[in-house]
Amino acid sequence: MRLNVNRKMNKTDPEHSISSVSSCNANVLSDVKLPTLSVPTFNGKIEHWIMFKDMFVESVIENKSISNSMKLQYLKASCRDESLGVIQPISISDANFDIAWKLLEDRYSNKRELLNAIIKKLLSQPNISESSSAILNLIDITNECIRSLEVLHYWTRHLAQISIYHTLRQVN
């Protein structure tokens, strides 16, 4: 019996082969139409820099089909408020994209400033009543801060204890 099952498993049945299943999956996946993603925006709030940077790098900077002058145009269109002020005076040209990106990197990739902004956001949450929406908001902001600290490799067991203690103190 065992030998018979092994023989059947070892036979190549084109209808059930792995390559047949893979090509079927590829056909299904190629028919899926995903919505177009827009280029993210950044308003200069340092706590949003990491997300903006990751998305902008992935969607624009690593796109080899567009020139540096087009990347600079996308960068200027994606920046708002304070961050736009950093790069606004730079004229659109291929040579200036790297300069503009470096200016933003120098301003917003400061780990100490990022850490301070995250800790401030975590610790400055207001005291709340026992309303479910206020409690959920407190939990959401706390989780967002924890994830940001993890990305920066600053999350430790001690910070977890402090965070839990502080979050619980915010509920009246």
From TrEMBL:
Name of the protein described by the UniProt record: Uncharacterized protein
InterPro entries named in the record: DUF1759
Origin species: Araneus ventricosus
Pfam families: DUF1759 (PF03564)
